């Protein structure tokens, strides 16, 4: 799905727009190679989230002095650093403030690649290549969209909640604390997609996903954390 709007995905969507890449990045990272030191170094960087001194740590990464970047071989380090710099350039050009706290380096890299290459599919290819994902494995967005799509929920009392994170992790606080979540006022009656103007839509599925399904002998469907959170 391309509707994740929690954590650093929220900041990226707020400042640079969509589509959301958090769930795609998470899947790609889990599939990345970790069988040797070079691959482990790349994965360690892309899995990393910035700590308490987030802005200072981000500057270290851009300058190439961060320990996680120094341990990456040059042939991987330079393209990784280039797309992180593309993200930083787009962030600065937006003229918006940006909260780096707990920011995902993988999300920043993925967004930089999408902006620089002008395509979500190209960004997936670049991420998969640098992460050394098995070429027999394909990761695809379920929907063809370059814009920011969201999820809405209509409850049994006919009230509505907009946003994947707001639905799966309801909280009265601005910052979500997963072991201190609030309950929804009543059960969910319907889930639907919304566009950037929060209007209910029926988006077109990715034709490549349809093709892959039609060519398959069998399908194992893992619902993912959003759906299991709701259930």
Question: What key phrases describe this protein's structure?
Answer:
single chain; 231 residues; alpha+beta; 4-stranded antiparallel sheet; 11 helices; globular
Task: Give the integer mean of the pLDDT values.
Answer: 88
Strand content: 5-15%
Estimate percent helicity: 40-55%
Overall geometric form? globular
The rounded Rg comes to 18 Å
Figure out the total of helices: 11
Kindly name the structural category: alpha+beta
**Biggest β-sheet: strands ordered side by side in the sheet:** 2-1-3-4
Q: What is the N-to-C order of secondary-structure elements (H for helix, E for strand)?
A: HHHHHHHHEEHEEHH
| Number of strand elements | 4
Largest sheet: 4 strands, antiparallel
CA distance, first residue to last residue: 17 Å
Report on this model:
The chain is of the alpha+beta class and 231 residues long. It contains 11 helices and 4 strands. It has helices at 7-16, 22-31, 37-47, 54-63, 67-70, 74-94, 105-117, 120-130, 164-168, 207-214, 225-230, and strands at residues 150-155, 160-162, 188-194, 200-201. A 4-stranded antiparallel sheet has the order 2-1-3-4. A hairpin with a 5-residue loop joins strand 3 (188-194) and strand 4 (200-201). Helix 6 (74-94) packs across helix 7 (105-117) and helix 7 (105-117) packs across helix 8 (120-130). The mean pLDDT is 88.
Give a brief description:
By secondary structure, the protein is an alpha+beta fold.
């Amino acid at each position: 799905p391309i509707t994740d709007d929690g954590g650093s995905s929220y900041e990226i969507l707020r400042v640079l727009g969509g589509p959301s890449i958090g769930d795609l990045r998470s899947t790609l990272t889990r599939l990345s190679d970790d069988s040797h030191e070079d691959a482990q170094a790349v994965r360690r960087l892309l899995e990393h989230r910035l700590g308490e001194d987030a802005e200072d740590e981000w500057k270290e990464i851009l300058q190439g002095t961060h320990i996680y970047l120094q341990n990456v071989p040059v042939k991987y380090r330079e393209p990784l650093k280039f797309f992180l710099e593309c993200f930083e350039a787009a962030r600065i050009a937006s003229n918006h403030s940006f909260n780096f706290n707990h920011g995902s380096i993988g999300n920043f890299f993925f967004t930089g690649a999408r902006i620089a290459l002008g395509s979500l599919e190209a960004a997936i290819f670049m991420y998969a290549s640098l992460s050394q994902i098995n070429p027999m494995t394909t990761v695809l967005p379920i929907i063809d969209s370059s814009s920011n799509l969201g999820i809405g929920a209509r409850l049994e009392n006919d009230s509505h909640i907009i946003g994947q994170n707001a639905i799966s992790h309801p909280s009265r606080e601005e910052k979500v604390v997963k072991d201190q979540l609030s309950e929804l006022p009543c059960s969910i009656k319907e889930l639907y997609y919304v566009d950037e103007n929060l209007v209910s839509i029926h988006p077109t599925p990715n034709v490549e996903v349809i093709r892959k399904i039609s060519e398959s002998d069998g399908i194992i469907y893992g619902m993912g954390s959003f759906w299991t959170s709701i259930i």
